[in-house]
Specification:
The chain is α+β, with helices and mostly antiparallel strands and 476 residues long. It has helices at residues 3-13, 43-56, 65-72, 85-94, 140-150, 182-193, 203-210, 227-235, 270-299, 307-317, 324-344, 347-367, 373-386, 393-410, 412-428; strands spanning 20-27, 30-37, 80-82, 97-101, 107-110, 156-163, 169-176, 222-224, 239-243, 249-252, 430-431, 434-435. The protein has 15 helices and 12 strands. It is elongated and about 100 Å long.
């Protein structure tokens, strides 16, 4: 190896980037060259475990170089020997220290990466009253460690892959060897290996490639931010996908009813958990169907409205310039705009926006006779119900607009026909060998123990029959 030529080639590969550090060094009877990217390496470890031992070394480098280096740099981790320049360049770009050695044909990689990450805290989207509060962060190794802390078994398997031509993102497929179905594991690994894209910056990129139905409105990949949820799903025979740089862990296979379940259901009494699940279902139904039914009643089936309520509605809508359908659609769109603005604005401005939108804008619009107060009330109830199940908020927000349009054009007939069509469509989805509406369509009676009504833990002795797994028995 031409020492100077290889050094120049590495510098050339980084296109003159100013954060590439090239350090010349000599020890014993040899010259060294270190390459690293500023900000990705633990400088303190590099100084104490590499530079100082080499400075203090007074002998000569003879015999197998790697053996001598391992003796001198015993505290710097396992030294990897690479004979491919491109791999060495990728290692330096990922945060490792690459070392060139005079008169040697190989590259030596020292694993001294150190990224700045946030501390482990409770995820903002998965807060609980009782139960574990730790959540995943953006660091790949930390997330794997959090899962291993929950599942201290040699059967927990982690298979690493690298995706992205420029990002070189680490992606891990995690499963329990004697529980997960090998066909599903291999299918997931194959789909990830076939991804050819410039870069992966979040796990949602991977999710789009793993979906069975690419253009479906409904989520087909589970996602969570807490290690206890991932561990519980792995124990059912599912497969988890961990992506470097993302706190969201993907789980497969996924069924629709997972969105109704919550981790706190398993930390409270089964009766309370069942009541909460019923409330979530009612809240979601209220969110999607209430605006459409209200519009359908006004446009076509007004005789179905109780007389006293009908009189109140007629008094409220008198003088409103818009039809009930257009009025409801306009209010729903305004609510969506307020929601998007409040999410993206700084928090201290978001509070003021909520006051302006909810009190000033709504109250003024009603008093001005542009919209009616019952319509505002219906939309407010619908929006509150929407977030009883946060994982279905995006689907529910789209569906309620669709139902309002059909209710305004075809009345209750259009609403009912749309419900039948969507139900049939959901029944047709098969996600990695799992029926999407399991355990209700098809009806899988053993799995109903963890359906709408949750049975006590000691009664759930079998793993879900709706999920492909190798061992059904969970408890003696």
């Amino acid at each position: 190896m031409d020492f100077q030529k290889e050094s120049d080639e590495i510098k050339k590969a980084f296109c003159g980037s100013d954060d590439l550090i090239a350090l010349d060094f000599s020890a014993g009877n040899k010259a060294f060259k270190f390459f690293t990217v500023d900000g990705l390496v633990d400088k303190e470890l590099f100084e104490h475990n590499v530079i100082k031992p080499l400075k203090n070394y007074e002998g000569e480098f003879s015999g197998p170089v790697i053996d001598r280096l391992n003796d001198i740099l015993c505290n710097s981790g396992s030294i990897q020997v690479i004979n491919d320049r491109n791999k060495a360049i990728d290692s330096a770009a990922s945060g490792d220290v690459v070392m060139l050695f005079e008169e040697c044909e190989d590259y030596y990689v020292l694993p001294l990466r150190k990224y700045i990450t946030r501390s482990i805290a409770e995820p903002p989207t998965s807060s609980v009253v009782k139960g574990p509060r730790e959540g995943f962060i953006e660091d790949f190794k930390t997330n794997i460690t959090l899962i291993r802390r929950k599942l201290k078994s040699s059967n927990l398997v982690v298979k690493n892959q690298v995706v992205g031509r420029y990002s070189k993102t680490n992606v891990a497929v995690v499963y329990i060897n004697n529980l997960a179905d090998k066909k599903i594991v291999e299918k997931i690994k194959k789909r990830i290996s076939e991804i050819d894209i410039d870069g992966i910056v979040d796990s949602s990129y991977i999710a789009r490639f793993l979906e069975e139905n690419k253009y479906s409105l409904f989520s087909q990949i589970g996602s969570c931010e807490k290690p206890d949820i991932v561990a519980a799903k792995l124990l059912e025979g599912r497969v988890a996908v961990v992506v470097d740089g993302s706190p969201i862990i993907l789980t497969l296979p996924y069924v629709f009813f997972e969105a109704i379940q919550d981790s706190q259901d398993y930390y409270t009494h089964s009766v309370r958990a069942s009541v909460l699940r019923i409330i979530r279902i009612l809240g979601q139904m209220l969110a999607i169907f209430l605006p459409a039914i209200y519009v359908a009643f006004q446009e076509f089936q007004y005789q179905m409205i109780p007389l006293k309520f009908l009189l109140s509605v007629l008094n409220a809508i008198s003088g409103i310039p818009l039809s009930p359908t257009l009025e409801m659609i306009c209010i729903l769109i305004i609510f969506e705009i307020l929601n998007e603005a409040s999410v993206r604005m700084p928090r201290y401005i978001g509070v003021a926006l909520s006051i302006v939108g909810a009190i000033v804008l709504g109250d003024t619009a009603v008093k001005a006779g542009l919209i009616s107060s019952p319509s505002v009330l219906i939309c407010a109830l619908s929006t509150i119900g929407l977030y009883c199940v946060p994982d279905l908020a995006s689907e529910g927000s789209t569906l309620r607009l669709l139902f309002v349009g059909l209710g305004g054009v075809f009345g209750l007939f259009g609403v009912v026909m749309c419900i039948i069509y969507i139900s049939a469509y959901l029944c047709s989805i098969n996600n990695y060998g799992t029926p999407y509406l399991a355990p209700f369509a098809p009806l899988i009676i053993p799995d109903l123990k963890d359906g709408i009504f949750k049975s006590p833990l000691h009664n759930m002795k079998k793993r879900p029959f709706s999920l492909p797994n190798k061992n059904r028995k969970r408890m003696k």
